[in-house]
Amino acid sequence: MLLRDAFKTATRSLTHGKMRSMLTMLGIVIGISSVIILMSIGQSAQNLILGQVQGIGSNLIIITPGAPSGKGFSPPASVQGIVITSLKQQDVDALQREPSITAVAPLVSGQAEAVYGNNNKTVSYQGVTADMFPVRNLTIGEGLAFTKGDVDSANHVAVIGPDLANTLFGPALSPVNKTIRLKNVSFRVIGVLSKGGAGPFGVDQGNLVLIPITIAQKQLLGISHFNTIIAEASPSYDINFAKSRITFALRQNHGITDPAKDDFNIQTQADILSILGSITSILTLFLAAIASISLVVGGIGIMNIMLVTVTERTREIGLRKAVGATDSDILQQFLIESVMLTFIGGVIGIAFGALVVGAIYFGINVFNPTLGWVFAFPLSSVILGLLVSGIAGIAFGIYPARQAGRKNPIDALRYE
Asked: Helix 3-16 and helix 18-54: axis angle, to 10°?
């Protein structure tokens, strides 16, 4: 039998039982669309996370206290609940003298209840210097950022996130020049950040309070060390060279001669992006693998229906063999039917998955436009969907097709 004739015969057979064909394809449609949706959502989430990390500043080098924990990115010791006091003002002074570094911004952090009138919210606060705003690309939507003079004079001023401003003051009242309290210490709000979103180490910048580092150290935390130091490498130098110079300066300050005894950890922005990219890629593949389970279920459904079809068409198989059809002709016909079912189901699944991804993108951007969710429809998911549907058709169609091809023509003609 010619391949063209086999396709025509298979098409007639599938269109003859339209409802059965549609229900048989349903499992493949659901499976492929699940893979498409989860891979697209995973890619969108990956783009969002990496975009937010890239948005905190360029050529950044993040220094945290504590011994390095091997390769990869690790959060600050303070985030892990470990108090390490190895980063001091002398380290900041040494880095400020380094030509390969253009800016140095130390940071301390904590949590407290922000209070204004009868409104309150538990927030993260950070004590920073004025250099932190340009280093992390923090822009002010209303009011002003505090200055070096505010930090040196330990002025009780604060810059808050836009979400916190809305929670404490509402949409109608301007927060600027209003007074809030953190740990019973009063701060005058002088500015509001232009946007929220996740910052370094997962801090919600929408509900963040930034205050002068001198006030945070002396009055809120009672410490003299830093939780983190963020340095910006000069464009004139390679960032790895700047990293090596920071390592040299800190070892000299801390009296460390054995690199294995480092009491600080240094990561570049490229290190963070690499690790985050690997993690999100693995999670995306994991989600796709889970969704692929439905493909197996759909494939088994197709195999069962094809076995039933072979039984129902036993007399037809006998007639075909009686007029000269070979075992391979019968096998080819039923295998083509199986592949057509899964392939058509795969195409419908891809289209449905794209529609759902578009709806998710539209919904997120309507209800939460500040999130910055981007539409991602990776070509790899389409190729994977078509490839898997084709393989499923062959894998789950071979057994019923072989059963049909092996039928004895005499027995098939006698079948009632």
From this structure: 100
pTM (two decimals) = 0.61
For residue range 234-282, list pLDDT tens digits in order: 888 888 899 999 999 999 999 888 888 888 888 887 676 676 667 777 7
Rounded-to-integer distance, Cα 43 and Cα 281, Å? 8
**Cβ atoms 82, 66 nearer than 8 A:** yes
- Neighbouring CB atoms inside 10 A of 35's CB total 27
Name the nearest CA neighbour of 49 among 309, 277, 290: 277
pLDDT digits (tens, 9 = 90+) for 21-68: 777 778 778 878 887 887 788 777 777 766 666 555 558 888 988 877
For residues 167 and 208, the answer to whether their CB atoms sit within 8 Å is no
The number of domains in the chain is: 2
Report which of 341, 326, 323, 295 is spatially closest to residue 404, judged by C-alpha positions: 326
Domain that holds residue 382: 3-53+274-414
50: phi then psi, degrees, rounded to nearest 5: -65, -35
Q: Are residues 188 and 89 in the same domain?
A: yes
- CA 354, CA 377: separation in Å to the nearest integer? 7
Question: Any idea which residue has 């990869």 for tokens?
Answer: 72
Within 10 angstroms of residue 240's Cβ, the number of other Cβ atoms is 12
Q: Tokens 């809030």, residue?
A: 180
Q: What is the dihedral of CA 9, 15, 17, 20, to 10 degrees?
A: 110
Q: Are residues 147 and 296 both part of a single domain?
A: no
